Structure formats: C-alpha cells, structure tokens
Amino acid sequence: MRPALAVTLAAMSIPTFLHPFAAPTREQADFLSIASGQGATVTDTTGRVYIDAMASLWYANVGHGRSEIADAVAEQMKQIAGFHTFSTFTNPVADALADKIGFLSPYDRPRVFFCSSGSEAVDSAMKMARIAQSQAGHPERTVVISRERGYHGVTYGGTSASGLPPNQAGFGPFLGDIVNVDPDDLAKMEAVLSEHSGEVAAVITEPVQGAGGVYPPHDGYLAGLRDLCDRYGAYLIFDEVITGFGRLGTWFASQRYGVTPDLTTFAKAVTSGYQPLGGVVVGDSIRAVYEGDPDFFFRHGFTYSGHPSACAAGLANIAIMEREGLLERVSMIEQKFKEGLGDLLDRGLVSEVRGTGAMWAVQLPTGVSEASVFAEMLASGVIARSLPSTITFCPPLVITEDQIDTTIGALATALES
Predict the structure, then answer these.
(1) What is the 3-state secondary structure of the chain?
(2) Residue 264: which residues within 8 A CB-CB, separation 6 or more?
(3) How far is residue 220 CA from its own chain's centroid?
(4) CA distances from 299 to 87, 95, 128 (A)
(5) CATH code reported for the domain at 32-62+326-416
(6) d(Cα 352, Cα 286) in Å, to the nearest integer?
(7) Quick one: pLDDT at residue 10?
(8) How far is CA 73 from the centre of its chain?
(9) Cα–Cα distance measured from residue 246 to residue 297, given in angstroms and rounded to the nearest whole number
(10) CA 252 – CA 248 distance, rounded (Å)
(11) What tens digit of pLDDT does each residue of 378-391 get?
C-alpha cells in the first residue's frame, strides 16, 4: 500500500466531529453513540440500554423522551421559530418564561436575562456586576473573586474565573482582574477582599461545586460570603448552572441555604437539555442600579437571547416539574445515595463520600483509576462521570429507587474488581 493511501485510510477512522473534552486522536469506534432515551435511561445504536446516572451532563432533570416538550417546541416553531429581542422586540414565550423564573426565584422584583448556555450566563453575570458597579459610581470596581475548584464554563470569562488549572493550561492569557482564592476558608476570602478593598466588583461561586468534584459548602460558608460581600461593597454571584431548577430539592440552591445573591446564573435544567437555554436572574439590588438612570443603555446580549423555541421548552419543562412534584423526589434520591455510598465507605471501597440533594461523588482510594471504574460501570450498563480520583452522580429526578440501587451496585462491583 502506498504511504499516502495508508495515511488517508488511517485518517478515515478519526471522526469529522471534533468532540469537546476529548482527545482529537480518539477513533470513531471508541465513541459510544447514544440514539434514544426514556426516563432515566438511554439506548445506544446497538440497542443496549444504560442507566443515565448523570442526567446527561448535570441537566436532564425531567428525564429523556418527554414528547410534551418536543410538542411545545414544534408548536412554537410553527408560529415563529426565532426572532431577536434586541432593543424594540420581544415575544410572548420569552416574557412568560421570564415571569415564571422570576416567580420561582428568591427575589422580590427580579429581571431575567436570557442567553443560550451556562458559559454565556457566567460571562454575562460578570459583565453585569462590573457595569452595575460603574453605574453606581464605582468604575474602579472591576476585580472578580472566584474559588479554587470552581467551574464556570469555557468562554474566556468563565475559564479565567474557574479554579481548575487543567482547563486553563495553554489557553492564556486570561481576563484581567480575576483572583482565585481558597475554596473553603472565609478568613482567606476576607484577606483578599481587604487587599483589594474598593476594587472588587463581585465574588462568584457555585453554591455546591460540581465539576470540580461535588463539594457542598461548609456550614455557614455561603452566609459568611454574603456578609463579606455586603461589608466590602461587592456583589455576590451564585453560579447555579447545575444547582438551579430542582437539583437540591428547591428551585434554586440559594433557597435551600437561605442565602440570596445579587445575581444568579442558570442553564442546563431550565429546559432539561431539550433546547439550549441559559440566563441570569438579576436581583433587586442590581435592578435598582440599572433602572435608576433613565439614560442607561444595556449594551449586552446575544443573537438568541429570549429565543422563542428555547423558551417554549423551558415553560414545558417547568410545567412537568411542577405537575409531577419532581422537587419532592430529591429527598428520596438524597437518602438513597447517602446510605448506599456510605455503605461503600464503611466497607473501605471509597475514601470519601460527598454530596447533597441529587448531587453526589465518591473519592477513590489511592491507586484506583477513575477511568477504569468508569469503564467497568459502563460495561455494567451505568453511565456515571469520572473526574480526577472521583466518580460523580447527578441523576434525572425521575430515577427510580431500583435504578439507584443498580447504579450503586455497579460502582461497588467496579471497585471490588
């Protein structure tokens, strides 16, 4: 075989689709092709069924195969699929969804901004905080403080604010005036606020750190963060891209922890992934700044902000969650994972269990490969997520008790082997 032909044939095994968070040299045959889904399960192109113990990627809260959402999107597309919302224009479904999210949020008089992803939502919130400080007479307040282990998406703002060095390697230089601090120590947070006194625009945090390994906040941490922001004149941003819309048994994590931020980002479960949609809920403090100057013009937005078809999916998704009482199911999911994973800890199969609501993780013992555990679980028909030395779980809120037992049993078998 001629060398040029051999190279061409070898290249044919590499897919045209450049996959996110994957090695570009990964061959087509090494990918698992998912063809359909129903409830808390998905089916590949060979017909094999898997328990989706990650709600795809932290988002399929109502589960898969909801024709009601598909029908709502299709009906909206028959009327008008999309039209921009810049300046003069709006549409009924964007207005209705904004009203609904505002009602479910912890704020008294919120505004809701729409975009298409969690990454866009984070960048938007950072810009919103800075422009609010400027409008309030503090243009020098540009510093954004974030936490180590934090994940805030992959746009340049979110990557700059993230506390996961592997996700930053090779992509710099990053956005200026970003400071990353200890993820759990309020004293160190205050030291940074003090060091940059008069310069801080906002502090951004996930209420429960997700992609960094599922780390719930220490008791009193979020309340302490709220107090520090108030004392140092900084806005508090909760990145609720994962925790929003029922993941912790409340519509927003801020309601579970009794701490209200100034801005809340959301995405993922607002549509359970049936359409790409994200946004920012603007709290009363920042709303007052924006509306306090009649000459202020908000120069930020995206082509698909308030996209009617995506908003139709959001309305249908929330209606399902309310009708089926899915938030109330979180207590069962929490208890099952707490007990089941706790048993693995007692048996010495894992070194730590972390979690709350319907977000859980186990820390693997030294020398145990997360890739091997993931592969063993996949072979048993369970899809979890592997992170460095960690296996995480974030199932659809429709998952059954038997499916949770099977999930934990697959983990146990993988660890024993």
Answers:
(1) CCHHHHHHHHHCCCCCCCCCCCCCCCCHHHCCCEEEEEECEEEECCCCEEEECCHHHHCCCCCECCHHHHHHHHHHHHHHCCCCCCCCCCCHHHHHHHHHHHHHCCCCCCEEEEECCHHHHHHHHHHHHHHHHHHCCCCCCCEEEEECCCCCCCCHHHHHHCCCHHHHCCCCCCCCCEEEECCCCHHHHHHHHHHCCCCEEEEEECCCECCCCCECCCCCHHHHHHHHHHHHCCEEEEECCCCCCCCCCCCCHHHHHCCCCCEEEECHHHCCCCCCCEEEEECHHHHHHHHCCCCCCCCCCCCCCCCHHHHHHHHHHHHHHHHCCHHHHHHHHHHHHHHHHHHHHHCCCCCEEEEECCEEEEECCCCCCHHHHHHHHHHCCEECEEECCEEEECCCCCCCHHHHHHHHHHHHHHHHC
(2) 105, 106, 237, 238, 240, 244, 252, 254, 280, 281, 283
(3) 22
(4) 10, 20, 10
(5) 3.90.1150.10
(6) 40
(7) 53
(8) 23
(9) 34
(10) 8
(11) 999 999 999 999 99
For CATH 3.90.1150.10, the residue range(s) in the chain are: 32-62+326-416
End-to-end alpha carbon distance in the chain: 43
Question: Does residue 358 contact residue 334 with C-beta atoms inside 8 Å?
Answer: yes
- The structure tokens listed for 284 are 């009363």
Q: How far apart are CA 240 and CA 263, in angstroms?
A: 10
Architecture of the structural domain at 68-323: 3-Layer(aba) Sandwich (3.40)
How far is 208 from 108, CA to CA, in rounded Å? 24
Q: Taking the C-alpha atoms of 75, 79, 81 and 87 in order, what is their torsion angle to the nearest 10 degrees?
A: -130
Domain(s) labelled CATH 3.40.640.10 in the chain stretch across 68-323
Amino acid at 140: E
pLDDT digits (tens, 9 = 90+) for 172-230: 999 999 999 999 999 999 999 999 999 999 999 999 999 999 999 999 999 999 999 99
Type of residue at 167: N
Tell me the one-letter amino acid at 183.
P
